UniProtKB/TrEMBL annotation:
<dbReference type="Pfam" id="PF04229">
    <property type="entry name" value="GrpB"/>
</dbReference>
<dbReference type="InterPro" id="IPR043519">
    <property type="entry name" value="NT_sf"/>
</dbReference>
<dbReference type="InterPro" id="IPR007344">
    <property type="entry name" value="GrpB/CoaE"/>
</dbReference>
<dbReference type="GO" id="GO:0016301">
    <property type="term" value="F:kinase activity"/>
</dbReference>
<keyword id="KW-0808">Transferase</keyword>
<keyword id="KW-0418">Kinase</keyword>
<protein>
    <submittedName>
        <fullName>Dephospho-CoA kinase/protein folding accessory domain-containing protein</fullName>
    </submittedName>
</protein>
Length: 205
């Protein structure tokens, strides 16, 4: 399997290396999040349309500041059960230039919740209605490329799609924070990434 989109040799190497952020960095912009119910529901065919509608709103609000807007995460994979939250990657020239994109996003109702300069300059903004997690990265970010690879792999490999669903349903049991939910399914995520990376290496040979 080659990537479903072109990768340079440098990008291929970068996506296969997971970087850790600064463990002493406080990512919470307005304090740690409240406990919440973690729900995993059957695939909703309305999710792509919700993304398309939000993409149009983001493009109008951000103009040329938005270099790329893409539907990622489980709601971007047909037939995959997911939390009913649309994940969107927004690529900008410089995520550190928050003054250029945070105010127009705030005007749309987004709340800036996470700032992680040490981890791919990641920012996260959340919208309550509809529920959206907006991830901000720089163009070419390895984490954004991994999001695309993971999504496309699950679309093309139904056996791993079912395996991931089972992992998600187990992961939500007995937890009430997103961090715990993500931690519980991390082993399965890394195992699927190992398959993706092996396929990338084979395609480069």
């Amino acid at each position: 399997m080659s990537a479903s989109f072109p990768l340079t040799a440098a990008e291929r190497e970068a996506v296969m290396t997971f970087a850790d952020g600064d463990p002493d960095e406080n990512p919470w912009v307005a304090g740690k999040p409240q406990q919440e119910e973690i729900d995993v529901v059957d695939y909703d065919p309305r999710w792509p349309q919700r993304f398309a509608q939000e993409k149009a709103r983001l493009e109008r609000a951000l103009g040329p500041y938005a270099l790329h807007i893409e539907h990622v995460g489980s709601t971007a994979v047909p037939a995959l059960a997911a939390k009913p939250i649309i994940d969107i990657d927004l690529l900008v020239a410089d995520p550190a230039d928050e003054a250029g994109y945070i105010p127009p996003l705030t005007a749309l109702g987004y709340v800036h919740t996470i700032r992680e300069p040490s981890w791919y300059q990641h920012r996260l903004l959340r919208l309550d209605a509809p529920q959206i997690n907006l991830h901000v990265f720089a163009a070419g970010s390895p984490e954004h490329l991994r999001h695309r690879l993971f999504r496309d792999w699950l679309i093309a490999h139904p056996e791993d799609r079912q395996r991931y669903v089972a992992s998600k349903r187990r992961a939500r049991q007995g937890v009430n924070t997103m961090a715990d939910y993500n931690r519980n399914k991390q082993e399965t995520v890394r195992q699927i990434y190992a398959k993706i990376f092996a396929a990338l290496r084979n395609s480069a040979d």
